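Quick one, T. Sequence first:
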Amino acid sequence: MAAEHPEEDRHRALAAFIETMLDRHGVPERQRFRALEAALGMSYTQVRRRMLGEAPWSIEEIRKLASHFHEPLIPIMSALADVPGIPATLPFAGAALPCTIWPVGEPLAGRIGPMVAMHDETTDQWTVASASEVADSPSYELARLLFERSPPRRVAVLDDDSDSAQSIVDFLGAKGMDAQPFNCAVELLAAMESEPFEGFVVDWLLGDTTAKELLSKIRARVPSGPVVILTGQIATGIATEEELAMVGASYRALLFEKPTRPLTIFNALQVGFTPEAPAA
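Structure tokens:
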């Protein structure tokens, strides 16, 4: 039987999706409405009404939300659909492209059509393939298949030398990352209250102090993801290898001595963004 209030159900589904997204980005529950205010440029009351289903979300608001948190738009939009889409991958040219699918019917062998969906019940993973490639295997017909470009990785670059920070940001930007420079820990921590960052490049010595306390706060907010520590003071004795080794182990960070080639920093971030293969 159809739902009596399908519009309310869709708004509840979207609100639940947004709550899950904010949780994934480490936004504390008590700060979530404030984070949405910053993302959408709305008042607290407007955000509250939308999250409680008292006012509808517009397409532009959802687009702004996805852009601010660097989330794919399709999964958010699918939360508004009568039947939510399912995350899947499409192997193409050696890469696994993320997509969203709407499979229909029962799995049958010998389907005719351009694309079908395969479901691995062991891992609960969905894969899209050409029907001709899986002719003898049970597959699902697809009612809809949507692609969206993955958002760029967001990286915070902290160095009290603004020129040094900007040069790293420029290089990472040219490589397709969304990097933002910061000159002090206070600025970075303030930005993290409303902006999600997935990776960090941090100078070890910040004025008269070190980045140790900052790294602790970063890991409290972002438990995983790459953290790169830069220092040019080991040779002078101002920074010691023993302390840096302990900090690197404690906060799962990589250490590079200055001057460091920007490509080395980029590669370290890329490796950190790559999910680890499951143990055999």
